[in-house]
Amino acid sequence: MKIAILALAVASLPVAAAAQEPHPQVRIFSDDPMTLLLRLGEPSGVETTQNFNEAHASPGTGSAQATTVTKQYREWEPVCGVPCGRRLSLDFPYRIGGDGIVSSGTFMLPLEDNVEIHVRTGSSTWRGLGWAAIGLGIPLVLAGLSAFVVAPANGHSPSDQQFWNTAGGVTFGVGVVLEALGISGVVLNRTTVDLR
Questions:
Q1: Which residues make Cβ contacts (< 8 Å) with residue 103, sequence separation at least 6?
Q2: Residues of 22-53 as b/e, b for ≥16 C-beta within 10 angstroms?
Q3: What is the pTM of this model?
Q4: pLDDT for 106-137, tens place per residue?
Q5: Which of 11, 78, 91, 123 lies 20 to 30 Å from 130, alpha-carbon distance?
Q6: How far apart are CA 42 and CA 104, in angstroms?
């Protein structure tokens, strides 16, 4: 009987070892040497606030009921840079970032022994300029359209209408060009991640 139990215990050792969570070795391949792999860390800060609500006071006491709200903060922590080569935990969400790099979406590492992360980075500077171009383009498009409406509505002379139509057309055109450049700047400057 003891031999059968010992044999069963020995036979279950590889299963127990396989059940343990492996830590894959991660290699990063990127078009930017400043690329960092970031991990969402453990909760680090706690903020507790108390709110007093007289509407929920105990009848006849006139005192307010307090509710406590607790918030925990988690921050993205750098784990390694290009080319990495470290074994990392599967327990955390990860993302790509770095100085001047648009942060990628969040991802989890796959259950593999070796994981390659192929990264195409987006420039946060160019993406910011794209948003600025969109912000400038919208009012210019609206101003150009309003110039087309103002000229005929005010009963201007034909030469005045020609001026407003030209000014409106130029303003509208510049706005459309800024919108197109801005949208392409935002869309093309995102960071993509391919896990292999």
A1: 38, 95, 96, 97, 191
A2: eebebbbebebeebbbbbeeeeeeeeeeeeee
A3: 0.66
A4: 999 999 999 999 999 999 999 999 999 999 99
A5: 78
A6: 20
